[in-house]
Fold O-antigen ligase.
Amino acid sequence: MSDRPSERDKYLLGSVLFLSLLIGGGTASGLYTDTLIEVAAIISAAAVFSQASGQRIPRSVLWLLILAVAVVILQIVPLPAAIISGLRPELLLADSGLVGETRFRFVSVGVGRTIECLLYLVAWAAFFLSVLRLRPEQVHALLPFFFMGVICNGLAGAIQYSLSDDIAIEGLLPFTINAGLFANQNHFAALLFVSIPFVVYYGLFRGYLLSGSLGLVTLLLLLLAAGSRAGVLIGLAITVLSIVFLSARSRTSGLSILAIFIGLSAYTIGAWTKIDADAIDPAFGRGEFARTTIEGIKENWATGVGFGNFQKAYQIYEKEEMIFKQYVNHAHNEYLEIAFEGGAISILLMALYFVMLFIALIKVRRDPLQKAAFLSVSFLLIHSLVDYPLRTEALAMTFAFMNAIIFHKGFAARLAQKNEMIEVDHNGGKLFVPIGTSS
């Protein structure tokens, strides 16, 4: 009877993950699909936390999340106007109509957008903490839900690219679908390449080498078809590292590994051709976005402009010759955007997360699933240097799921328990028994 709640929790959280991959590919603000996912994540988390669990949540992780939520809340709390006025340019002083004309002001220059970001963060944290409370085998059981979401996106992408190089689907979701089930082809590519370590894991450690190889080939071909330069490069790098990083402890033959590397060599030729065909960064590109964002960070480093307000504040620092019909909605560098919106405290929290992630790498070196999750997280963070993948619900929930695998304490406990067992012959087969116990 005690296992039934865990089974229900697995299906609840798995459904949230699958739902986010189906309808969470939009990048615009105020999408009802994003709100639906956030509500589902919070309700599911409440159900999980309503029951006792034998899994402990790391204190460092919990405190980091508490501080992150506190930073966002502080941006929508009225503060004395004298404090805010001395920390940022006059043009970016927030509207104080809600709290009095002169006495108080908000840190956020757009309170509504910051509240929207707060809900986004709370839903993300709730899902992440809920997965941490599951048993290791239940966490592993969430992978099929993730794979189903990836397959649905892959099928949608394959259909689109087989019909035309540029096909947009409107009316199905509150945003225009341009690649897979995503509004942005780069984010579709991000979902594909973060799936690669898990596909390699299934092929090397779960006995599905043939299906894993076919899945890997399909993902790489879809990455080429998607046309994302960063996605193609990262897809190639993450595939090589996944095979090298994970195959060291697998039973797969060296011949199979060699065949995979030969296939990757052919893929490299196609990838290079794709990248060489386009300019890496035009005059009005990511380099200019970064320079302008850094100017904004310098003048708002103490408090930031409020989460969700990049677009509104960026325009103040744009050069006149860089103003076109198209406008800049994101910095295309997640770290610069967070620093611009959150200020010095957000930079400190990012640094703490990276330290915790590095420490986690030392602890997860022996578990292949955690190593696969670490690779996916690492390359998603690398992709965030040139894009904003975590601004979509689909990739944010995927990111939460992968981080939960990395920081889950149950995997280390299970490995320690396995190390205390010894393999013995029993009726012609193999059996694990505790050390010191006779067969």
Summary: The two ends are 31 Å apart (CA to CA). The first strand starts at residue 79 and ends at 80. Strands lie at 79-80, 104-105, 421-426, 429-434. The chain has one domain: 7-434.
